[in-house]
Amino acid sequence: DIAGKAGDSIVAVADGRVIYAGPGVHAFGKLIIIRHTRDYISAYAHASEALISEGQNVTRGEKIAKLSSSHTGPSKLHFEIHLQGEPVDPQKYLPPR
């Protein structure tokens, strides 16, 4: 999870096409899933507002959503990368801090 503040922008990690934008599992709020290549997808959970829609092409760094407030503590983005359907460490896909 990546700490943030309610209303912070969530941006696409890479170019791709939005394949899902809607309610996620109960604890995740709104969920956005982007297919980047045949093998890679990224998932972004805890969004309050989607700024994109399913089927839309997005570019790396494009604002795709706003971070929601949390009822259980600080706001945070749940971010995942999947390679061929398996989760991988997302840290190697993020810019250095």
Explain this structure to me?
With 97 residues, the protein is mainly β. The chain has a single domain (2-86), classed as Glucose Permease (Domain IIA) (Distorted Sandwich). 0% of the residues lie in helices and 49% in strands. The protein has strands at residues 2-3, 9-11, 16-23, 30-35, 40-50, 57-58, 63-67, 76-83, 86-88. Strands 1, 2, 3, 4, 5, 6, 7, 8 and 9 form a nine-stranded antiparallel sheet that branches. It is globular, with a radius of gyration of 12 Å.
Outline of this structure?
By secondary structure, the protein is mainly beta.
DSSP summary: helix tally: 0
| Overall geometric form | globular
CATH fold-level topology: Glucose Permease (Domain IIA)
Question: How many whole angstroms does the radius of gyration measure?
Answer: 12 Å
Q: Low-confidence segments, ≥5 residues, pLDDT <50?
A: none
Oligomer: single chain
Domains (count): 1
Mean pLDDT: 87
Order of helices and strands: EEEEEEEEE
SS content category: mainly beta
CATH architecture: Distorted Sandwich
Strand content: over 45%
Could you state the CATH homologous superfamily? Glucose Permease (Domain IIA)
Main beta sheet: 9 strands, antiparallel
Q: Please tally the β strands and state the result.
A: 9
